[in-house]
Write a structure and sequence with these properties.
With 363 residues, this protein is of the alpha+beta class. Helices cover 25% and strands 27% of the residues. The protein binds fructose -6-phosphate and magnesium ion (MG) (2 copies).
């Protein structure tokens, strides 16, 4: 069997209502466009999901990562969905499509991309995480816990095939450089970087014993691409599970702690990441709090058996309650840091205007 590629490509091409949610017609448009691609055999399978105002295309095929035709297909789907959004006068039509025409890769054009290629195992459980009203740094903490924290993942202590640990490829999004660090021996170096979630992002994770890819995350930063505020770069990631990789339960466990992430209202606030079921992924309170959904699949020769809506489980009720409590607490800070992000992380650049207006009054 040829290697399978899982491509998750997402964009916000119009919100319903405001930036809160997805209109069903956009999902229908995407499915109508992708259906024939599966019939013709170009795609093995696909699913169209949504998280908040983000349209999520999950596709399997055999063309490898960064395949031009697959990226063009995703781009064309988003362009068509933009037309549907335009007819309905949805909010922020074509928001994440930053370029006019496709030029070989969808990377750097606005949509978020997470892709991995691997040989499908005898049984291949994967979990695809999708978040809204936050940014890719939101994955750093859970990825660290899943692949490096023995208090989270029992397997790194007691499963011989994982005991060597994992390698983390991290990206410095300001310098445009990457470095790969090895856990557990370089753990403190790793934390020095990835604790700084606005700049250093975990991109890929590999099992040390054989170099097998275990996880990959989208790392696009729309604000850096466009050079100005153009909306949030709501992230996605793919995690492979079980049989020498963290168990599904170990992969989900970090989300029982609704950790603080950047995003929320106007992409300029700090708030808890709330794990929710698909139908609760509609961030409405102060455009939030930020949400994450988890879609579980068994791959079967590339077919996507699923999705299982994994956070639709009572064991995450307490995390949701805690997230709501933390949301109340954070909201009470109003425009004060740390609820409002520091100037370099805010997606609004109001300060220079105010400074210009008031500069002569500084004594
Ligand atoms: C955050 C987000 C929303 C908007 C806010 C203002 O990522 O998408 O919180 O920033 O609703 O939106 P505009 O400026 O489009 O009215
Ligand atoms: Mg939007
Ligand atoms: Mg969004």
């Amino acid at each position: 069997m040829a290697k399978i590629t899982v491509s998750v490509i997402k964009a916000d091409v119009g919100g319903y209502v405001g930036h809160c949610s997805m209109h069903p017609d956009l999902i229908a448009t995407a499915e109508t466009r992708l259906g024939p691609q599966k019939e013709s055999g170009r795609l093995i399978d696909f699913k169209v999901l949504c998280c908040g105002d983000d349209l999520e295309l999950i596709m399997t095929h055999t063309f490898g990562v960064e395949d031009e035709a697959i990226h063009r297909l995703a781009w064309d789907v988003f362009v068509e969905c933009t037309e549907t959004a335009r007819k309905l006068k949805l909010y922020g039509v074509g928001q994440d499509l930053l370029k006019d025409a496709f030029t070989g890769t969808i990377k750097g054009m606005g949509p978020g991309v997470a892709e991995m290629e691997f040989e499908e195992r005898k049984s291949e459980p994967i979990v695809i995480f999708m978040a809204d009203k936050t940014s890719p740094g939101a994955w750093n903490l859970p990825l660290f816990k899943i692949f490096a924290d023995p208090f989270n993942t029992a397997g790194i202590v007691i499963d011989p095939s994982m005991h060597e640990g994992f390698k983390f490829k991290i990206l410095d999004i300001r310098a445009g450089k990457s470095i790969t660090l090895s856990c557990p021996e370089e753990m403190y170096d790793l934390l020095m970087f990835i604790g700084s979630t606005g700049r250093y992002l975990v991109k890929d994770i590999y099992r040390k014993t054989d170099g097998e890819i275990a996880a990959t995350a989208s790392t696009q930063k729309l604000s850096l691409i466009a050079g100005k505020y153009v909306g949030k770069d709501d992230p996605v990631m793919i995690v492979r599970c079980q049989s020498g990789l963290p168990a599904v339960g170990e992969v989900l466990e970090p989300f029982s702690f609704p950790h603080l992430v950047s995003g929320w209202m106007r992409g300029s606030h700090c708030g808890p990441l709330m794990p929710v079921s698909f139908c609760e992924a509609n961030p409405s309170r102060f455009d939030g709090p930020p949400r994450v959904i988890a879609a579980g699949f068994q791959l079967s020769d590339g077919k996507l058996v699923g999705p299982r809506d994994i956070f639709a489980d009572v064991s995450f009720d307490e995390a949701r309650k805690e997230a709501n409590r933390v949301a109340n607490y954070m909201r009470r800070h109003g425009p004060f840091e740390p609820h409002r992000l520091g100037p370099e992380d805010m997606e609004y650049t109001t300060m220079p205007h105010i400074m210009e207006k008031l500069k002569d009054r500084f004594e």
